[in-house]
Amino acid sequence: MRLLVCVKRVPAPGARINITADEQDVDAAHLGFTTSPHEECALEEAVQIVENHGGEVTVLTLGPAEAEEQLRYAASVGAHHFVLLPVVEADWDPQRTASALTKAVQDLEEGSEPFDLVLFGNESADSGGFQVGVRVAQALSRPMVNGIKGIEMGEGTVTARREMDGGFEVYKMPTPAILGIKEGINLPRYPTMKGRLASKKAEVEVTEPTSEQGGQTRVRLHRPEEKVSETVILGKGPEAAPAVVDLLQELGVL
Amino acid sequence: MSVLVLCDHDRGILAEASLEALTFGRRLANDLGVTCNGVLIGEGADDASTSIASYGADSIYMVEHSLLTDYGPAAWGESLVQLVNETSPIAVLACGTDRGNEVIAHLAATLDAPFVANCLTVDAGNPSSWLMTRVQWGGSLLEDSELSTDQVKILTVAHHGIEAEQTNSSSPGQKESFTPELEESVTQTIVTDRVVLTQGITLSTSPVVVGGGRGVGSAEAFAPLEELAEELNGVVGCSRAVTNNGWRPHSDQVGQTGTRIAPQIYIANGISGAIQHWVGAMAAKNILAINIDPEANMVAKAGYAVIGDLHQVIPAVLEEVKRRKS
Ligand SMILES: Cc1cc2nc3c(=O)[nH]c(=O)nc-3n(C[C@H](O)[C@H](O)[C@H](O)COP(=O)(O)OP(=O)(O)OC[C@H]3O[C@@H](n4cnc5c(N)ncnc54)[C@H](O)[C@@H]3O)c2cc1C
Ligand SMILES: Nc1ncnc2c1ncn2[C@@H]1O[C@H](COP(=O)(O)O)[C@@H](O)[C@H]1O
Q1: Contact A130 B156 (CB under 8 A)
Q2: Does residue B165 sit at the A interface (CB-CB below 8 Å)?
Q3: Which residue does chain B place closest to A23, by CA atoms?
Q4: CA-closest residue to ligand 1 atom 27
Q5: B70 pLDDT band (50/70/90 cuts)?
Q6: Which of residues 190-219 of B touch A (CB under 8 A)?
Q7: Cα–Cα distance between B314 and B320 in angstroms, integer?
Q8: What is the CA A244 to chain-centroid distance, rounded?
Q9: pLDDT on residue A206
Q10: Cα gap B218→B248, rounded to integer Å
Q11: Average confidence (pLDDT) over B117-125
Q12: B117: chain A residues, CB-CB within 8 Å
């Protein structure tokens, strides 16, 4: 089985997101970077599927040269092939990203069978456009469902589960298919020692992306207004218990 | 000329967020001096239509077809494409729910038009270039974004971004049926089955949430938090550090990639208050942070705090709760 996972490199901010002076980007000067949790789970799911059914996992990212770091991480948890589409500008708009990814998928599939599954995250962690996977699926004329929290592979089919209020919905699709994955579908593994070594040797294929500009342009980023509240310190250590319970009674929850 | 609002419903039960999208759509239509029309697709559409008119839909397109049974992104998306081609609206919008964003993405992909997700405001002053403010990072950050296209403008409205507002109109809203031409292939992504899990109070609706973070230390150490939640008729929540360690299931996770909570009180134990956690917790009416670190972001943002080791504080609180109950 051949699977493809599309991941995006994003900064990992802590208590607050700072913005660069030109208001065009998240100020990542003192931040680490990561793969979005949804996409981490998509990767884990792909690795588990080939562990159970045989096959190989390819990971594709469009981003700065440093996004190689996220591809190497993918190698350390069991993926096999890695493709980086390098870009210099900050965040591409979703239409443009989708057109570049579509072209890359077509190139990767040239002369071979299509990927049985292409996995996306439900939405990217930073820009949250909720569309790149759908656009790629339509361009490739494949069925696509987003928000997936369970996958079962069959003979030429995939059964996917999506959460809804108080339960889940089931979709049964022919493969090749495309799914958007949500965190919670699995618990991603940590890299092993062996995986870390393998990741150093992994070969990353770098291909210049081709794309067309979309119709959405960033003007600026800014932070939502924050309510500044004075924190009432109810006490220190276990002596604070009576004050805590007073509060619970005041709020009518006890 | 019109603004078209796709109303998300599940077999007749209207998503609350649809009413926010209608309110947003009606205001936009007023600004543009055009009508605001609702769209309902699929099984149960009739049941969903009753409340729509009072939130501002001048008329409602009832999309009907034998293949439009249960929900399906491709079937709904293609129906909307054909309705747009037929009625040439200025804008199409939906609520920023799972379904709303998904169907709208299909519409935009088919038309090869831009789509701006989860908007809070829109300035439609310039016909070929609209300015929107939209949500990023699950609500931690805002982006001002320009939507430049001569095609139909496509967007979704961030859930909880505005309050739904009824209009005074007493007219029932005219219904118009629309039958798209659908190919069999749209059925590939129609819901084939549903599994209902009956649960009591859920994390998103519970009036009390007792949350635990990395500071709790282990799966076993959640026992006192569970006991406190039970005493207060609440539920346990947690941070991603906890789910990543396998101490709690992901269904307990609060935050950007977890659940949004809005309890009367959120008791956050040993949680630092990273922005991705905070966006899931910030709708809580009251927050009590229990943390050894007085500088923790959660402590700074909470209305109330106890500085100390949760392993000592929680048992003491439990004891006091039981004492007062008896
Ligand atoms: C794209 C993205 C999405 C994310 N989505 C989510 C999400 O949905 N939800 C989420 O929670 N996180 C999310 N995260 C992760 C987030 O950034 C933080 O890593 C995480 O919330 C930290 O969890 P924590 O507060 O439990 O752990 P830490 O940050 O390690 O904090 C532990 C806290 O416990 C305190 N403590 C330690 N011991 C004790 C004790 N004995 N008594 C009292 N206090 C003690 C410490 O002082 C500290 O404040 C996301 C991250 C990214 C990049
Ligand atoms: N630059 C990128 N490189 C690779 N995959 C991406 C990129 N941007 C978005 N994606 C994928 O598309 C999904 C949806 O993105 P979005 O439409 O931005 O919410 C993400 O979860 C990723 O799986």
Answers
A1: yes
A2: no
A3: B143
A4: B214
A5: very high
A6: 190-199, 202, 207-208
A7: 10
A8: 40
A9: 97
A10: 9
A11: 98
A12: 123, 128-131
- In A, which residues are within 8 Å of B309 by CB distance? 237
Bridge partners of B129, per DSSP, are B148
Residues near A48 by Cβ (< 8 Å), separated by ≥ 6?
A186
Q: DSSP secondary-structure letter at B168?
A: S
| Confidence category of residue B172, pLDDT binned at 50, 70, 90 | low
Local structure of B65: helix, strand or coil = coil
Please, which contacts does A249-252 make with residues 24 or more away whose CB atoms are closer than 8 Å? A249/B324, A251/B264, A251/B265, A251/B286, A252/B264
Instruction: Name residue A108's amino acid.
Output: L
Q: What's the half-sphere exposure (Cβ side, CA atoms, 13 Å) at B187?
A: 9
| pLDDT tier at B173, thresholds 50, 70, 90 | confident
Per-chain mean pLDDT for chain A: 96
The encoded tokens of residue B321 equal 């709760």
- Here the contacts of B279-287 (C-beta below 8 Å, separation 24 or greater) are B279/B137, B279/B138, B279/B139, B279/B140, B279/B255, B280/B138, B280/B253, B280/B254, B280/B255, B280/B256, B281/B211, B281/B254, B281/B255, B282/B139, B283/B160, B284/B209, B286/A247, B286/A251
Q: Alpha-carbon distance A203 to A210, whole Å?
A: 22
Cβ–Cβ < 8 Å for B52, B173:
yes
